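Lecture 7, part 2: worked example. A protein chain together with zinc ion.
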Amino acid sequence: MRRSRVIPVLVATVMLAAAPLAQSPADGPSKAAAPAPKDDQRTERLKNDALKDVDSMSVFTQQMIDSIFSFAELGFQEVETNRYLIDILKKNGFTVQEGIAGIPTAFMASWGSGKPVIALGSDIDCIPQASQKPGVAYHAPMIEGAPGHGEGHNSGQAVNITAVLAVKKLMEREKLSGTLKIWPGTAEELVGTKAYFVRAGFFKDVDVALFTHVGNDLAVSWGDRDGTGLVSVEFTFKGETAHAAGAPWRGRSALDAVELMNIGWNYRREHLPLDHRSHYVVTNGGDQPNVVPRTASVWYYFRHTTYAQIKDLWGIGETIAKGAAMMTNTELQPMRVLGSAWPQHFNKVVAETTWANIQKVGMPQWSDADQTLAKALQKELGNAKQEGLTLKVGGELQGPVKDNRGGGSDDIGDISWNVPTVTLRFPSNIPGLPGHNWANAISMATPIAHKGATAGAKVQAMTLIDLLVKPALVDQAWEYFRTVQTKELKYQPLIREQDQPAIELNKAVMDRYRPELKKYYYDPSRYKTYLEQLGIAYPTVKRP
Ligand SMILES: [Zn+2]
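Predicted complex, written out as structure tokens:
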């Protein structure tokens, strides 16, 4: 057995008379945008049953988080992760469509029938060079140079699947109509897949999309979000080889074109709107110095806060690339789109529903060990404050962002412009970290991640129950989607007709590191936790 699994136990069907839900809200509801509507007795009873069931599945949740952490797979190469998730879903009665939208490591799993159709997603890929021992409050790679979960995408599927399995049992017991879907945010770090899921029609019949992403708080928001959307484009130039010393005048350097494009872009940057973001890596800089580079490539992310501005930036990039080709007498090859993301907009009705449940669940109880790890890491990173872990749920539901200064992107944006969507953030990570870094992996196979995911699963389960037993909520969500969100702005994909998922990305890196990583795959049949398997004392911190 590669792994054992705790089979979720059926909850007792005892009729609990409106027992209070979990702890009281961490923050007074007085500051909330609107007071949470009170649930009727049946809804409250179902939610109580779901909460208990999610708690009873905490070992199952922990095993998923620890297993996916140990697979440490980069975008488009989530082979073990994909197989592991599909296996769990099939064993729990889901029908799974594999390799969807031309992406080998993507799937759509379904259970149930009829309306509403609710699709739960979360990202699964990790970060280059973020290998890190969990529970150790300083840089300690498990394998030097290897990828690692330096964002925390190993935890979101555990949130969704735990919630869905709890709710599925209630649906069977209560004969509730509805279809539950689970799908992975494959290659999110490349914003590489969600626009293709949309294009292939996987969200056409979906009523509500519940997305979840790791954070350091328990939160949700609605309206236009801060951050950006983007298009990810690779520019390739073609010149001619020559002996770089014997006859350099016979050659035309594609690398010169790449360098001049970057210089051109960096001069232009001063005259671009301040809320844009752009960055590049050279993916092909030539073969060897004594051969004038015939081909060279540079890969850009063009980020901005609106679809129209993303298109503008892309156009400027193309113009500069053409200029660089002219200057070097090389040819610009057709641009290759490697990914895209719309700016995000979340649904007001679904966010309010989720927010009410967040207040009922509240933050997890952190142990002294959890806080010691968090504070030691914050100190290690030179943070001005060592505030530890977040203790309270924020005071109010976040509405539309007013002053968007730009920032990161997530291709959940594409789905959010096709069906009512929210992203639930759950507290499996530590505040004050740089992101896309080894530091962000430290908590991700520790009790911090496990408890944060259980809290997230509780919220997700309760929101599912709301959507299943109150069909009016789904209608109201669509009302907002049609009459407010998309009243003036309609979705049109950034990917072009000829674009295809860039499924070969990261293959060489994973081929190189997977044999090493395999030695450290988590074996839950032998070890209670991954920390135990690795022999790491929790927490491991530097002596003061
Ligand atoms: Zn992410």
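DSSP finds 14 helices and 13 strands in the chain. Residues 1-33 have pLDDT under 50 and may be disordered. Keep this in mind for problem set question 3.
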